[in-house]
Amino acid sequence: MKESLAPGGCAATVVGDVAYETLVGTTREFLDALAAAVPDAPMADELTVALRDWVARLADRAAGVEDERLFGRCPGAAAHGQSMTPAYRVTAEDDAELRGVTRFGGYFLGGNGAAHGGAVPLLFDELFGRVINGEGRAPARTAYLHVDFRAVVRLDRDLDVRVWRDRREGRKQYVRGEIRDDGALCAEAEALFVVLRPGQP
């Protein structure tokens, strides 16, 4: 699954929607390739020099404040324009539920063709936050997240994902989710998000 399957929509104007989303998608491809590669010393040295050059160049363009960053703050882009979580695209979404397709690339390998156990909660937390912290809602933070693994989450496969609001009790919002592989349940999760009080970071 390529990042370009999701619509563009980065709210920032200093870089084009498609350009930044393509950059993030290519970063994902690089991380997958790096995880699979066995470079020799000259190649490792060459890549290190190139990356250090880009670190310096990007440092010169660092945002002054958090709200000016692009990474993770492009609502219409795949994964909000960030490469930290496994790639996903939303196929249906409303105020209470999100459905989509996700794919764990080689970067998330745990062993024997399975996704690393820690990557699955990371994806759930990203999608839960998207459902809970929708446009116009008061921000909320994760209070706890529990995942039950029911089957191996395999790499390089399109997996169906669904998350939904379960219930609300004052500032407490409960959400649930599942990942399925061709209908078979791989993982299910539940989480509690707490709405922040005014002024809370």
Which features characterize this protein?
single chain; 201 residues; alpha+beta; Thiol Ester Dehydrase, Chain A; 3 helices; 26% helix; 31% strand; disordered N terminus
| CATH fold field value of the largest domain | Thiol Ester Dehydrase, Chain A
Strand portion, in percent? 25-35%
Major sheet details: 6 strands, antiparallel
CATH architectural arrangement of the largest domain: Roll
Please characterize this protein's 3D structure.
- There is one protein chain.
- By secondary structure, the chain is α+β, with helices and mostly antiparallel strands.
- The chain has two domains: 3-67, no CATH class; 85-195, Thiol Ester Dehydrase, Chain A, CATH 3.10.129.
- It is 26% helix and 31% strand.
- The protein is built from three helices and eight strands.
- The protein has helices spanning 17-36, 41-59, 119-132; strands at 87-93, 97-103, 109-111, 114-115, 140-149, 159-169, 172-181, 184-195.
- The strands form two sheets. The chain has a six-stranded antiparallel beta sheet, covered by helices on one side. A two-stranded antiparallel sheet has the order 3-4.
- A hairpin with a 2-residue loop joins strand 3 (109-111) and strand 4 (114-115).
- Residues 1-9 and 11-15 have low confidence and may be disordered.
